[in-house]
Design a protein that fits this description.
alpha+beta; Cathepsin B, Chain A; 10 helices; 5 strands; 8% strand; globular; EC 3.4.19.12; hydrolase; cysteine-type deubiquitinase activity; OTU_dom
Length: 297
């Protein structure tokens, strides 16, 4: 059964769209003012600051209103829970349908996804003007110079592989398209078969010693079968699996280029340190859209 989004999640989603729309508008405003027109550029900076401040102020007010509304309903919810308890007790003797193991797994996964979405929404509410917002602005400016923009990838532990999957799909080249599952499997297989290239860079966080053979196999198994987060080692393996260079754009550092020995157009990923307030995250990119049509798209 499809999960119903909470008011906090809906508000956070609305705020993300409004901020994305504002950034498109700001980019359009910047493009309309020549760089050598200092007077108009100064006025432009003031206008942009005001637009961002107005949006942040409105978002904060909407969050306060939502919190106030939620607080007034707490007593109603408690009373409702008490009444449900009575009904539940009356139905204890009714035989419930048997739940299969597969359904339990699906329910558990859905509950985990729901919890993660709630954490993302909470982080979104708390970080309207924080480092994540500033990081997003810097990345948007860097990518705009290449006529690119961020394309959001879900934050579920597979983000790096989903971003690579999207980049390959955008190329539409036969034999290059791979699913997340395939990318994880090929990455783990490559790391196992080239252990000497990867093992020296993996150490036990408790002892500081290099991974044992068993620990390395456990690491590769997690890469293949779980939602273990991917990093630079996995990207290095992927460049060799795909025989393509990978460029990772960052807000406060020069882009990292991996696999420069391959003479092809690189896969471009965006690395975010402060995404959703939940730690590091990868997004993909797409061609920069016309700001005038941004809302329609």
């Amino acid at each position: 059964m499809e999960e119903v989004e909470t008011p906090e999640e809906l508000l956070a989603k609305q705020h993300r769209k409004e901020k994305k729309d504002l950034q498109a508008k700001i980019q359009s405003m910047k493009n309309a003012v020549p760089k050598n027109d200092k007077k108009r550029r100064k006025q432009l900076t003031e206008d942009i600051t005001k637009l961002e401040a107005d949006l942040s102020q409105r978002h904060e007010e909407e969050i306060r209103q939502l919190k106030s509304t939620t607080d007034t309903k707490v007593e109603e919810v408690i009373n409702g829970v008490e009444s449900f308890k009575v009904e539940d007790e009356e139905q204890e003797d009714v035989k419930q349908p048997r739940v299969t193991k597969a359904q339990k797994r699906r329910d558990k996964k859905a509950a985990q996804e729901k919890e993660r979405e709630s954490r993302i929404a909470e982080a979104e509410v708390q970080n309207l003007q924080g480092v994540r917002h500033q990081e997003g602005l810097k990345l948007a400016q860097k990518l705009a110079q290449q006529k690119l923009q961020i394309k959001e990838i879900s934050s579920d532990g597979h983000c790096m592989y989903r971003a690579v999957e999207d980049q390959l799909a955008q190329r539409s080249q036969p034999g290059l398209t791979m699913s997340v599952k395939q990318l994880r499997s090929r990455t783990a297989e490559h790391m196992r078969s080239h252990a000497d290239d990867f093992l020296p860079f993996l150490t036990n966080p408790n002892t500081g010693d290099m991974y044992t053979t068993d620990e390395f196999e456990k690491y590769c198994s997690d890469v293949e079968h779980t939602a273990a987060w991917g990093g630079q080692l996995e990207l290095r393996a992927l460049t060799q699996v795909l025989r393509l260079p990978i460029e990772v754009v960052q807000a406060d550092s020069p882009a990292i280029k991996i696999g420069e020995e391959y003479d092809s157009e690189p896969i471009t990923l965006v690395y975010m340190r402060h995404a959703y307030g939940l730690g590091e995250h990868y997004n993909t990119v797409e061609r920069l859209k016309d700001p005038a049509n941004a809302e329609e798209s």
